[in-house]
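yo

u said u wanted the structure for the complex thing, so here. seqs first:
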Amino acid sequence: MLDDVSLKLESGGALLLTGPNGAGKSTLLRVLAGLRHPDGGSLLWEGEPISQDRTAHASRVAYLGHQDALKPSLTVRENLALFTRAGGGDMQAALKAVDLLHLSALPARLLSAGQKRRTALARVLLAQAPLWLLDEPSLGLDAAAVDLLGQAIATHRAQGGLVIATTHVPLPLDNVSHLALPGMPDQSRGWWGADETDLTGDAA
Amino acid sequence: MMGLFCAVVTRDLRLALRHGADTLGAVLFFILTGTLFPLALGPSPDLLRHMAPGIIWVCALLAALLPLDRLFGAELEDGSLDQLLLIGLPPSLVALAKITAHWLTTGVPLLLAAVPLAIMLGLPGSTLPILLAGLLLGSMVLSLVGGMGASIVLGARRGGVLLPLLVLPLITPALIFGAAAIDAARTGLPWAPDLELLGAFLAAAIPLCPLAAGAGLRAAVE
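structre next:
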């Protein structure tokens, strides 16, 4: 599906993955998160292959998938409680950053799609991880929330964090590199024929 | 790491509390199937007393299987499994935390419900401690083996049908020893060896099942 993809990010860097539907953007993000094994190629963090210790890599990653991964019956706070413990982030600050303080006691089933997305973004903030992997983070967000997202990403990068995001719409990001994935997978090369998928994260 | 483990268990307990009907479902199923036997077999006290250990154990096994299907299935569907695997716990500990929550929400209530069922079926009071000790060990084994099975069939089509076919054969030793211990206690034979074998089964399942379950979870999100 992905072939000859090579990318390298330095501290504070941001990368936007673009490409048509089915180009493999989400798959690449899952590989970078360590959730999926690449069929070939290597993935390095500060020169070390991440497959050596996937649990250690997991604690360096904050992943926002397609799905918001919220339990409808738990409140916003309860949904995030586990991740406060995991990342050691400040719940109050994270909720404030995505403007959800006033809704924090509501069960997630009562939230709108955009509010659910913001809750999922709060989870990314709580993880306190150097590498953010965001799969279409602006999905369902209104203009004000997209601004909040831009601010959160800018703060994260100013602290030396890395951001890799897939998107179909412009995101408010400064000096960002782009990686446009080509269209349909080349069937003759198999489903996942990456020769060299190289990520050198160098976060502070 | 211990704190994270407890946080996952707490989250699952809170979820179980919010979905009280689902949680109680297994216990009600246990009591209902147990009460069907006197109706089907006839009210002969001798016959029921003789069959009680087997009835209780089989019903408990089947009841504990009910919520297993959703144990990891719900997490996979809403994307929570990705997040659970990224919180920094090894996958086997994530699986063990979920299995612990399953035991607390299913195994322990079944244990409590077994007492009235045993009395109803006419088991002598002296065998009740043996029944409870056996079920205590047995329900833990069932949560462990069941959790392993649930993670292996995760993402498979018709996984809910596959799950009992996978778990029930693996759990038969626990059923044999558990029911035999009660029988031994009822007839005055030594019951300790049966419980010890059950304990040995549990001792093997505690390290092995979470490992296999963790591998299953990793494979499911691939």
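Residues 2-221 of chain B form one domain. The longest helix of chain B spans residues 91-120.
cya
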